[in-house]
What does this fold into?
Amino acid sequence: MKITLKVWRQKNAADKGGFQTYQLDNVSPDMSFLEMFDVLNEELLSKGEDPIHFDHDCREGICGMCSMYINGKPHGPKQTTTCQLHMRSFHDGQTITVEPWRAKAFPVVKDLVVDRTSFDRIIQAGGYVSVNTGGVPDANEIPIPKKVADEAFDSATCIGCGACVAACKNASAMLFVSAKISQLAMLPQGKVERKTRAEQMIAQMDEEGFGACTNTGACSAECPKEIKLENIARMNREFYTAKAKSENV
Amino acid sequence: MAATGLFLIIFLLVHLTGNLQLLKDDGGEAFNVYAQFMTSNPLIKTTSYLLYATFLVHIIWAVILSVYNRKARPVGYAHNKASSTWSSRNMGILGTIVLIFLIIHLKNFWYEMHWGGIPTVAYEGESYKDLYAVVDKAFAEWWIVALYVVSMIGLMFHLYHGFQSAFQTLGLNHPKYNALIKGVGTAFAVIVPALFAAIPILMFLERS
It folds into this structure.
């Protein structure tokens, strides 16, 4: 396959950046999108040029590191992660535009790499369960209905890649935050801290400079883990209840 | 946006019921009696102040929200494909269409009814302002009718997203009721503006 790549190049956070075009003449349809970048980078390195920087880790679709905005969509045309996107999803001779996630809370570090530590700070603000140390409790000691467990698990599959923020016209992080709040609020272990959790995580989310939700649903439509919009409604409920009855006055 | 939006949705229903009196074949009596009642009843008057406030909060909050959300993405995408409905992405534009309409609409009828010099008519010995005549005159102009129809199409798309979005914001999202909310919302978004738009069209056709 022949592919024309239009890639965003930016030296550092302060650099203005711009698009650069690359021609690839020998792309296999079986390559993953990242492998195609590996081949291009090898070529750039052999020519003594600066390779294109991009985030990646597991390449199995479970770590949430890859973060490319491909041809107008986060993670490209398929509802999956960039590492699981293959060149067969494109046609011979196609021009592909690759950009970094665009959000105030995700500043560009270099080329296609963005700083997503804002997500980490949201988790630090309350996305955890404080547990007792001591003996290991028996399995299934606390009964949890299968349906509830399944739903909590569905929310917990969020890998925190940030595609929701990238896809949202408001660069809102509500789908991510709501998935994290939901997975804990639905289970007995997480219920103890649910009020302070909702308040603190949402306060942190606002502080990071993410936009507000206008319910367009683009986040869920683009989420590689198919996190549902119901989570955002649940987060709103958690938030209203927390604001009304929280221990934090 | 959600709470004020839902209140405005209820207002639309009340307003529509009143407006349908215009189509009654009685020379405007039912409509004029209704208009007089709406501007003089103390309970309705109090509610109307709440309504003005709701409109203002809805509009001001929308501006604040739009500015806030724009700030969240200082650098945009060079290539962007949408994966959401057109109306959900353009609530600001649709709202502006409705706002422009609202200003013209208020000037034409609401202002005239309250402070304008409207001729009066008498029904059973009681004097009423003849708002029907004002409406009838306005809807004889084709461009006013066109403006109303275009605005109602804007309102249609605004409601198509707004109705169900309000429930989502309030946290009312449940697989049991989602289909109902979406169904009622879509029906409301189509039927109510269509009926509103039908009034000027029918009155215009009746004259010509």
The interface with chain A takes residues 65, 68-69, 71-85, 88-89, 91, 161, 164-165, 168-175 of chain B (CB under 8 Å). The mean pLDDT of chain B is 94. Residues 42-71 of chain B form the longest helix (30 residues). The radius of gyration of chain B is 19 Å.
